[in-house]
């Protein structure tokens, strides 16, 4: 009887651990979607918003490097591309200011 109870406790613990870890995974994926989802409207964002997105991208890249999942390299690569695009828009604005 004690073994059954102990096994039941272990199974419940395992399900709880999986639920919490999938919640953590979902949160970084949601943040990734929010950041890279703004690429299409990047030209209409303010300079401050673009700088904020660049900072958030860098923070999320650091966070992704700590995650032990095979797909992390793909997300890091895509996030770097999004960050680079935001930086490009900022550089484009700076060059227009200097020229005009």
Short descriptors:
100 residues; mainly alpha
Which SSEs are present, and which pair or pack?
Elements: H1 2-36, H2 47-66, H3 72-99
Task: Kindly describe this structure.
With 100 residues, the protein is mainly α. The chain has one domain. 83% of the residues lie in helices and 0% in strands. Helix 2 (47-66) packs antiparallel against helix 3. The longest helix has 35 residues, at 2-36. The radius of gyration is 20 Å and the shape is elongated.
Strand percent estimate: under 5%
Class by alpha and beta content = mainly alpha
Average pLDDT score: 85
Number of domains: 1
Number of helices: 3
User: What is the general shape?
Assistant: elongated
- Span between N and C termini? 82 Å
What is the gyration radius calculated from CA atoms?
20 Å
Give a quick account of the main beta sheet: strands, pairing sense, barrel closure. none
Element string (H = helix, E = strand): HHH
Number of strands: 0
* Approximate helicity band: over 70%
* Unreliable residue stretches: 16-20
Condensed summary:
This protein is mainly α and 100 residues long. The protein has one domain (24-99).
